[in-house]
Automatic annotation (TrEMBL):
Protein name as annotated: Origin of replication complex subunit 4
One Pfam family recorded for the sequence: AAA
Subcellular location: Nucleus
Domain Origin recognition complex subunit 4 C-terminal: 217-400
Species the sequence originates in: Cephalotus follicularis (Albany pitcher plant)
Cross-referenced InterPro entries: ATPase_AAA_core, ORC4, ORC4_C, P-loop_NTPase
């Protein structure tokens, strides 16, 4: 038993280390020419080998792997072409000002080529220095790679940096690659005509994983290697049990629920890391419950937490408002809620019935907790009982909150089903 525990502990550590390693996540199919990793590496390596200038945009939502893939490619190329590459990195959040950007480029070039950097150099001095270095590096068959993160921020204002950079790359002697990274899919449309005419218009799109990509990713990340320090029997059993989880429709529902709110690769990896961390070493294998627990843990549900802290009376008022909305009463106020509350009491003879003043205080408490709010601000001079309100919690959230409420009256769950 101790040996199996040890195997399970090693499996847990391996899976967690994989989920934190971009090299493992984004390079599983590096031999395939269809991956963004392969496409980007081909474009940059071709520019280096053929001594030509190039520009490309990496576009996609935040967390889709743009920077991770770019760093993997640059890491590989720096090893393959050690003395032929120089990487200059700028970020639009820090360097969108042209003067600041040119100064940062000059500083990084000086550090790279062991030159003395002057903090007092003017905008024109730094601009001329960059152009001269592009020509010098071109003659020395060395490629300068400019990485412009938050590229769309550089496309604001007069775009002098982009124009100077792309214009200098028109020279036969210069040798550079400009890589723009942006979460705006229309980033190239922000460019001025003079800048756009000098841009190559190459684009790589990073999109949320498809269902097939997702299945491959899960199997790639969460399966144990058979040719490793794990016992062959344990690795086979582990992989077989995980495949049975993948085939389970309940697992598919868990993943779909999570992806409906968080569809990027980085968020998915965070979810998987959380699920793996819930693996019970005693049971030795991943289970469906690990993923269900991770879903409940990782998704913030502040409204549900608020419902758990409500009084029984406040729950009644929330359910009455939900019933009014089902009856298509889109506009209702405290008086309407009280009528519904009395109707429920008269129909089901509930023992939980409170006076109007007590209900009003509970109603005010719901407003303070932001489980309900006023529909508009037009009736600010009106008495509280007459101002229209609306629910800020969905029927699904309310039902889940009632189910998880320890002393919730059974009648409330019945009323939710009606």
């Amino acid at each position: 038993m101790g040996k199996e525990k040890n195997q399970a502990g090693k499996a847990l550590n391996l899976l967690r280390s994989r989920l934190c390693d971009p090299n493992f996540i984004f390079k599983p199919l590096s031999d395939s020419p269809e991956t963004n990793y392969s496409k980007l590496k081909f474009i940059i390596s071709s520019s280096i080998k053929e001594a030509c200038n190039n520009s490309i945009l990496l576009l996609g939502p935040r967390g889709s792997g743009k920077v991770s893939v770019l760093e993997l490619v640059l890491g590989d190329l720096l090893q393959e072409h050690l003395d032929q590459i120089s990487v200059i990195r700028l970020n639009g959040l820090l360097h969108s000002d042209d003067n600041c950007a040119f100064k940062e480029i000059a500083r990084q070039l000086c550090v790279e080529h062991q030159l003395l950097f002057s903090k007092m150099a003017s905008f024109d001095d730094n601009s001329q220095f960059m152009i001269a270095m592009l020509q010098e590096c071109g003659l020395a068959h060395k490629t300068i790679i400019f990485v412009l993160d938050e590229f769309d921020l550089f496309a604001q204002g007069k775009q002098r940096l982009l124009y100077s950079l792309l214009d200098a790359m028109q020279s036969v002697t210069s040798q550079a690659v400009v890589i723009g990274v942006s979460c705006r899919l229309d980033a190239d449309q922000l460019l001025e005509k003079r800048v756009r005419s000098r841009f190559s218009h190459r684009k790589l799109l990073f999109l949320p994983p498809s269902k097939e990509d997702l299945e491959r990713l899960l199997e790639h990340v969460l399966s144990l290697p058979l040719d490793s320090t794990f016992s062959h029997g344990y690795a086979l059993d582990f992989n077989e049990k995980f495949k049975s989880i993948l085939r389970d429709k309940r697992f598919e529902e868990v993943i779909d629920t999570y992806l409906n709110s968080s569809s990027t690769v980085s968020q998915l990896l965070r979810f998987l890391f959380c699920a793996v961390s819930f693996m019970d070493v005693e049971s030795e294998f991943l289970s469906l419950e690990n993923f269900k627990t991770a879903l409940l843990t990782i998704q913030r549900q502040p409204k549900l937490e608020c419902v758990k802290d409500c009084s029984i009376l406040e729950l009644y008022l929330l359910v009455c408002m939900k019933r009014l909305e089902v009856k298509e009463q889109n506009s209702y106020n405290f008086n309407s809620v009280m009528k519904e509350y009395k109707s429920v009491h008269d129909t089901f003879q509930t023992c939980d019935y409170y006076s109007r003043n007590v209900c009003l205080r509970a109603f005010e408490h719901l407003l303070q907790r932001e489980l309900i709010c006023f529909s508009d601000n037009r009736g600010t001079g009106q008495s509280l009982e007459f101002r229209p309100v609306k629910l800020l919690i969905s029927p699904v959230e309310l039902y889940q909150g009632l189910k998880s409420y320890r002393s919730c009256p059974a009648i409330l769950l019945k009323l939710m089903d009606r």
